[in-house]
Every structure is written in C-alpha cells, then in structure tokens.
C-alpha cells in the first residue's frame, strides 16, 4: 500500500462504515476504487489498524461516537534525521485531537527504557492511559507495550490487555508520520543545515569523540528547548477543517481535554496508583535520563561557559561549539 494513499483509504473506510455498508460490499468497493482484493478478514484487520469499529446494527452517529475521542489511540514514533550527530527524537500524538503528547530529543530513540520513560512520565502527569498505543515494529517499543498491556489487563473492552498495543508499519502510523514532515519544515531543517555546515567546514568529525561530546553539550539541550517551544505552539494553534477527513477541527489542547465539545468522548482510563508503582519498581522509569556526555567533559564545558559568561543560544551555538572543542581538546 503506497504511503500517500493511506489517508485516502482511511477516509474511504470511515465513510463506508458510517454509511452502514455491509462488510462484503465494502470489500467490493475497495477492489473497485483502489484495485486491491481484500478478504473479509483483511478488511476487518485494516479497520482495527485505523481504529474503526464496525457496528452494523447501529446508526451512523453511534458508529462515529464509538470510534472517536481523545486517548483512543496514541501514535508513537521516532525521528532520525540527525542521527549522524547522535541526536534522536521520539514523540507521541493523540490521533483524535492531534495533540502532541511529548516530543523529546536525546542520544537514542532505540533504547526501550528511554522511550518508555517518556510514555510513563506522561501517563503519570496526565493521569491517563490510552485505549491503545500504536508503534512501528522494533525493539524500542517493547517496554511501552509491556506497560500498556499491564495497565489494561483488567479492562473489559474489545481492546483490553494484549490488544491494547498495536505494532504495524509506518504507513499505518500516519498521524505521527505526518507530524515529522511538518516538524522538519517548522524546526528541524534549520538544525540539519547548521550541523551539515560544521561537517563541510571541517569542524566536526564523526569518529572524533571530543567533537561528538562537545556538539551534544552545545546543541542537544538547545534542540530540546526548541522542541518544547514547538510543542506548545503547535498544541495551541487551530487546526482547520479538512475536506474528506473524519476528524474535528479546533485547537489540539482543547480537543484533547474537552472531546465532548468536538463530537467525541474521553476514551482513556485512569491508571491505578499501585500499577504505576509496580511499573516503576520493575523498570525505574521515574529516574531521570542518563548523562549524555562523560562527567569530565561536562565539567570542562561547564567551567569554560562559566569563565566566559557564555549562555548558549541559536545565534552563538556554532561559535561556542568551536571554542569548546578547542578547550576540551587542550585539557583532556
């Protein structure tokens, strides 16, 4: 299935289900309009992947209410366009409201403990667990999947326990995938260009550990701050109505907290305190992230910045990096 056609197929299936079309008829429409021959089992699986519940006996409005609402699905994924510089991003988005749940930069988005910390800390701060989480295939989501299925083990809905986490290809994780292209335009392209210039000017060598440490010290906290500002701005802007989309228009932050005002409902569950304690006991997810540069390098960089009254910003990051690089090289 081509990536560019996924949203079209999703909108198509929404419309057919809302129109109460029989499941066999929907299969025929798919074959006619998309030249794909799906069995009934395949169609049902695709409906589940898109978060569409098929209620043949209900009215169209009942179908719409059954499948929409905040915390219905959290779409989670990583962004690796700066991996050459050891900077990785991992984010989560609510598929109903399109609210960005978290967006963090660190030295890995492949470590299951690191990405699970983001999930766990958001669950603790918001006091909610989603009905389902959706990720790409990969080991980085293994602990998130364990946490999600543990939290949902005693619920009685159709997506309880093992069905509360869904693995799938990135083409079926379009909500977060579409965000990455937006982020690149709004934020990341600037950093990609700046770091590429360091390479072209001979100021950064991939196999030089001091270059890597000094770059992380300079750019990673700055990039993280930029991401948090971007997250806040995005969640407070208004999403306009899109033709053919079965999603509400409005401000993501408002739609997430007040879904009933946008034709949805709250689909999440409150986590039990004892469950949070058990997960933290097993995985230590409330612990802060590890240091991303060695202590000796951290101390040298802190010392230089304090001595020179240097505060790292977008405007001076390149200059500070080059000076730190020389200072650490001469003192290590």
Automatic annotation (TrEMBL):
> Domain of life of the organism in this record?
Eukaryota
Boundaries of each Integrase core domain copy?
67-245
What's one Pfam family here? rva_4
Q: What is the designated name of this protein?
A: Integrase core domain-containing protein
Protein species of origin: Desmophyllum pertusum
